[in-house]
Amino acid sequence: GYSGAGSPGVLMPYPANTPTILLSRDRLAAAGPFLAVAALATVSGGLVAAAGAHAPMQKMVWMAAYLVLVVGVAQAALGASQALLAIRLPSARVLITECMLFNAGNAGVIAGTLLSSLSLLLAATLLFAFSLAMFLYTTRGAHGGWPIYAYRALLVIVAGGAIVGVALVSS
What we know:
single chain, two-stranded antiparallel sheet, 5 helices, globular
C-alpha cells in the first residue's frame, strides 16, 4: 500500500505492519444502519437514565447501561469496523439481516430481563449470538494487524458478556 505522506503528489510505501483499512462511500454507507441505531440507543439510554434518576431501580439502571454500551457503543464499533475491515463488503441483504438480528436480539434481551422471562432472554440471546457470528464471518480473511484483532476481541467480549448475563439472570 501507499500513503499520502511526504511531498504533495508523492505516494510513500506503507511500512509492512501498517493495517490496511479500505475507505469508500459504499463502505461508509454500509455502517450507516448500525450507526443510526447505535445513536438512537445511546440517546435512549441517556433518557432512561435521566427519567429514573430520581428513584433508580436496578433494572432501569441496567437497561440504561445496556442501551448505551451494547446497543449503542458496541453496535457502532462493530458496524463501522466491519464496513472498514471486510475484504468484500457484505451485501445489503446480509447487512440488513445482521442489523435486524443484532437489534431484535437486544430488544428481546431487554424485554426478557425486564419481564424476568428466561425463555425470552434465551431466545433473544440466540438471535444476538447469531448476529455476532455474522459479524465474524463477514470479516473472514481480513488483514490489518491490530484493527482486526481489536474487532475480534470486541466480538469475544460482547459474546462473553451475553453468556455472563444469561448466567446471572438464570441463577
